[in-house]
Amino acid sequence: MPNNSKPRGLGRGFDTLIPKNLDTVSLLNQGERIQNLLITDLERDKNQPRTQFDTEAITELAESIKLYGIIQPLVVTPLEHNKYEIVAGERRWRAAKKAGLERVPVIIRSTKTQEKLEIALIENVQRVDLSPLEQAISIEKLHQEFNITYVDVAARLGKAPTTINNIVRLLHLPKSAREALQTGRITEGHARAILAIKNQPKKQEELLHLITSKHWTVRQAEQFVVTLKKSGLNSVTGSQVQTRMATKTPATEKLSKKLNTEITLKRTAKGGRIEINFKDDNHLGQLLKQLDN
Which end of the chain is more exposed for a tag (fewer CB within 10 A), N or C? Predict the structure, then answer.
């Protein structure tokens, strides 16, 4: 059940921490400033694991840059001869060149400073008092600001890659669900159920409302998703979910009466199973004989 404890950590304005592009400026140390450098003075990181870039996506970004400029500055570290190596933002750099820009906004950091920030973020993710969304933000910053793959983040944190991916996916929740998760009105399990229907935003809002107003359990939320996907309906009612969750039906009751033992129904995403209770091996043998008749 969702708890009604007071929100931790982020409080008001939480949504500003999850824009479409995470804000590099939020990582600025005192004394750091955004500067405009010649695009020809920047070089790609030769150790950057990413070597393939979607040409069409770069072209689209270049068109956006022509209209709005570069909203999120690149992060670079100094090299010799007044050159700089790109730590984060190679995609923006490539698009800026395609757009014909001469200069781009950058944040210049020393290698030592960059390493300290990376360590600080890793330590931040490891804090036990962070909410799931706060963890997701820190992990995404490691990925975006330091070009660290999710697999490498997982290795550094001692977690499974699937765990990291699941945490980061929370950033794709609709705003209302993110706020509900942060304030404790829904749990992480509820949030994952909402994410399971990410292509149906209206249904996400409907499910969120049912969770918070009806105090649905995670299992009920999951059954809502299963029922919606299985039926292909435009809407799923609470009664339909309750039917899916029912452990007994007229059919199971009839069989239970015939065998004189408790029988329960367990539904899964595809189908389900019937559980027949027995007291001991002798009782099991009797039930099997009855089923043979």
Answer: C
Second-level CATH architecture of 113-171: Orthogonal Bundle (1.10)
125: left (phi over 0), alpha (psi -120 to 50) or beta: alpha
Domain limits of the chain?
A: 33-108, 113-171, 186-244, 250-292
Beta bridge partners of 78: 84
**Which residues, other chains included, contact 150 with Cβ-Cβ below 8 Å and sequence gap of 6+?**
139, 143, 161, 164, 165, 168
Q: Which two tokens stand for residue 22?
A: 């995470």
DSSP 142: H
Q: Is 179 a catalytic residue?
A: no
Give tens-digit pLDDT for 158-216. Answer: 889 999 999 999 999 999 999 999 889 999 999 999 999 988 898 899 899 989 998 88
Kindly report, residue by residue over 14-24, the tens digit of the pLDDT. Answer: 444 444 444 44
- Report CA 86 to chain centroid distance, whole Å: 27
Question: End-to-end alpha-carbon separation of the chain, Å?
Answer: 45
Distance CA 81, CA 241 (A): 67
Residue type, 81: H
Express as a percent the part of the chain with pLDDT over 70: 76
Please tell me which residue in 85, 90, 118, 179 is annotated as part of the active site. 90
Distance CA 259, CA 264 (A): 13
- 8 A C-beta contact, residue 61 and residue 92: yes
Q: Which among 148, 90, 92 is positioned nearest to 117, based on CA atoms?
A: 148
d(CA 170, CA 172): 5
Q: How confident is the model over 27-63, as pLDDT tens digits?
A: 455 446 788 999 999 988 775 555 567 788 889 999 9
Q: How far apart are CA 232 and CA 214, in angstroms?
A: 23
